[in-house]
């Protein structure tokens, strides 16, 4: 006789009419109990401080990266110059000056944006976060300063640039009435036969300077803050990086300078004024190398970074020397008007032949 009744499922749950497996859970959200206690408010304040601390850190790191990117673009614009001798005494081409002014305006706005986050002890606390951007900016303005004056930018002037308080003065921004006059002068210059090279960079910045009321509010808020402090370590490391740009500029100058002008701008020239751009760069790079080699680096984190950059700088000077050796020693074997190839004159890592 067959068994009667329902069979217990293998899972062991339920009976007839039930599916095997656990019952589906309810999807209704369960309300968490609100924590209570005498220390809740204290730890809530700690949480808010940590969140603010992390947000400040992220803002500074992002600003530092943006400053680095804009500074590199300034350097790329300067590398397109092709002067016959240094320092550059003629006005920069308008398109290059315009690019530099726009990038520098962006950098100054970024420095001003993180100015409240770098006040007092926070300036030292976040030094490592803002340091890469400051070093790259020092490299850019130091390279420009060298091309225009053939001098190394001093620490005081570099500190003035990175303070975040002098953006309007750096960019040549003026009052609204003067800005209108400058715009009219720029329009008159563009409609006349005046070359574009003679138009001032400050005029371009005045046109794109932004809202006057917003800028006045920024100036009032800046008065409450102290400027960003440029450490001597960041200044020196920025100069180390600048020598790399000098090397690239020298290699390009060697490759684009005809043999007839390589050892001097003209036959009647004499002294410093008669030196070509490659000659000026090689002499100044050697001077910087001897000066940096005499520094006492110490055993601090700065010393480790400086030692690495010193080796890179020495290699950069060597590359320029190899390029000169190839031009001077074997220059007589080359036809008149021949222009050197960058790789053939030591632009890479190879040594002299």
TrEMBL record:
Coiled-coil annotated residue ranges, if any: none
Main location: cytoplasm
One Pfam entry name: Translin
GO molecular function annotations of the record: sequence-specific DNA binding
The keyword Nucleus appears for this protein: yes
Annotated stretches, region: Disordered: 1-39, 175-194
Compartmental location: Cytoplasm; Nucleus
UniProt KW keywords: Cytoplasm, Nucleus
UniProt xrefs under InterPro entries: Translin_C (IPR016069), Translin_fam (IPR002848), Translin_N (IPR016068), Translin_sf (IPR036081)
Cellular component annotations (GO), alphabetically ordered: cytoplasm; nucleus
SUPFAM superfamilies the UniProt entry points to: Translin
Keyword Cytoplasm in record: yes
Protein family membership: Belongs to the translin family.
PANTHER family named in the record: TRANSLIN AND TRANSLIN ASSOCIATED PROTEIN X
Protein name: Translin
């Amino acid at each position: 006789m067959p068994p009667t009744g329902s069979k217990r499922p293998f899972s062991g749950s339920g009976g007839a009419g039930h599916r095997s497996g656990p019952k589906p859970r309810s999807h209704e959200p369960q309300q968490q109990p609100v924590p209570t206690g005498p220390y809740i408010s204290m730890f809530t304040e700690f949480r808010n401080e940590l969140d603010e601390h992390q947000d400040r850190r992220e803002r500074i790191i992002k600003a530092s990266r943006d400053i680095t990117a804009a500074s590199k673009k300034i350097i790329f614009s300067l590398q397109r110059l092709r002067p016959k001798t240094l320092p550059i005494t003629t006005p920069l081409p308008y398109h290059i000056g315009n690019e530099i002014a726009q990038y520098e305006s962006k950098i100054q706005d970024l420095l001003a944006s993180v100015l409240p986050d770098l006040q007092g002890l926070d300036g030292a606390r976040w030094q490592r976060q803002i340091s890469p951007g400051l070093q790259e900016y020092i490299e850019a303005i130091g390279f420009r300063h060298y091309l225009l004056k053939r001098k190394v930018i001093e620490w005081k002037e570099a500190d003035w640039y990175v303070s975040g308080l002098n953006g309007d003065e750096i960019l040549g921004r003026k009052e609204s009435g003067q800005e209108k006059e400058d715009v009219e002068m720029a329009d008159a210059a563009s409609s006349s036969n005046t070359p574009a090279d003679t138009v001032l960079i400050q005029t371009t910045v005045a046109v794109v300077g932004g809202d006057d009321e917003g800028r006045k509010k920024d100036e009032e808020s800046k008065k409450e803050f102290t400027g960003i402090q440029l450490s001597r370590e960041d200044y020196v490391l920025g100069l180390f990086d600048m020598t790399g740009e000098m090397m690239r500029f020298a290699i390009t100058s060697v490759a684009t300078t005809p043999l007839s002008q390589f050892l001097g701008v003209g036959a009647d020239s004499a002294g410093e004024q008669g030196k070509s751009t490659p000659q000026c760069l090689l002499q100044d790079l050697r001077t910087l190398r001897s000066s940096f080699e005499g520094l006492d680096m110490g055993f601090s984190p700065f010393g480790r970074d400086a030692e690495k950059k010193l080796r890179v700088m020495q290699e950069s000077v060597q590359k320029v020397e190899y390029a000169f050796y190839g031009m001077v020693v074997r220059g007589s074997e080359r036809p008149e008007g021949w222009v050197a190839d960058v790789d053939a004159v030591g632009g890479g890592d190879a040594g002299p032949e």
